Amino acid sequence: MTIREKLELREKEYLSPHATFSMDSRGRQRPEEPCDIRPVFQRDRDRILHSKSFRRLKDKTQVFLTPKGDHYRTRMTHTLEVSQNARTIAKALRLNEDLVEAIALGHDLGHTPFGHAGERALNKMCSRGFCHSEQSVRIVKLLEKEGQGLNLTFEVCDGIRNHQTKGSPCTLEGKIVRISDKIAYIHHDMDDAMRAGILREADIPREITDVIGDTAGRRLDSFIHDLIMTSTDAGDIRMSPPVGEAMQKLRQFLFEHLYTNPSAKGDEKKAEVLIETLYEYYGKHMELLPDDYHMLMDRGEPKEVVLCDYIGAMTDRFAIARYEEIYIPRCWRAD
User: Fold this and answer.
1) Which residues contact 123 (CB under 8 A, 6 or more apart)?
2) What is the C-alpha to C-alpha distance for residues 231 and 69, in angstroms, rounded to an integer?
3) Nearest C-alpha neighbor of 16 from the set 224, 240, 237, 235
4) CB within 8 A of 286, min separation 6: which ones?
């Protein structure tokens, strides 16, 4: 019996009957020989972690564009916080921790430079639209490894595709990641806003803090504890009505006072124009795209989708550098 088979049997013995078992996965797009050490979801986790698209997350915006400070979140640190929240919840509920980690690490691979500003710009420019969750799936299925994709399991791809509020994951592990994503960004966006001096703890309405606490740590603890206790033996992933309502009110508070605040978002329109300009330029000069993208078009992928692949994959820094190289005279550039 291989190590993998022993681990799969251990899952059957220890995990909840509601868990998604590695040996019961619906499989991969292309059949593969199983690893003799790692169950399928652990193998998926490793593939995502070693991918180029995962490494690029370190230079992609979370909320603040080019913040002046070392402690603001990036898309990668957000992803790691989602993963940690999800693993804590999955472990407490005896669900499949490898599956939630794989979904969490892969859920934002398709995010553009400059966060949702870049996503809005590509969605506007491309007649087929652009959605970062669908792009994340496209990356793992097609774009990684020079057009081969990562060949992940159905359950991981489903969790990545359905991590947004409108999604409906087919596994409880996917549902954990979906709510862990919200918990993470509500927690760290508030923390970053306070670091930037945009919000203060006292700004949060008492009707929220009376339910979930008056510090960042207490709120995070309230969310995770309530989710675990409410979901235990429920066969579903849910919060209690009071805490769930408080979380929604805090999310709305952030939309009103941070996500539309000129102090935090004043440069987003400039970022959108930059992305739109790059899209138009490369649309007229497709020959400048790297060979991997020409290979995609040779395989029949639409030109405008490939443009989104190229520009969406850029980091903030790379997108700015390309814009400067194309449009800014060398003598005007900052040293």
Assistant:
1) 129, 130, 131
2) 38
3) 235
4) 294, 297, 303, 307
Strand, helix or coil at 103? helix
What is the amino acid identity at position 171?
A: T
Neighbours of 72 (CB within 10 A): 19
Please, which contacts does 225-234 make with residues 24 or more away whose CB atoms are closer than 8 Å? 227/89, 227/179, 227/183, 228/89, 228/92, 228/93, 231/89, 231/93, 232/92, 232/93
The token pair at 11 is: 């899952």
Residue 159 contacts residue 169 (beta carbons within 8 Å): yes
pLDDT digits (tens, 9 = 90+) for 43-98: 999 999 999 999 999 999 888 777 777 788 999 999 999 999 999 999 999 999 99
pLDDT digits (tens, 9 = 90+) for 5-36: 999 999 999 999 999 999 999 999 999 999 99
- The token duo for 190 is 């508030």
Percent of the chain with pLDDT over 70: 98
Closest CA to 59 of 107, 108, 113, 109: 113
* CB 225, CB 92: distance < 8 Å: no
Q: How many CB atoms are located within 10 Å of the residue 300 CB? A: 6
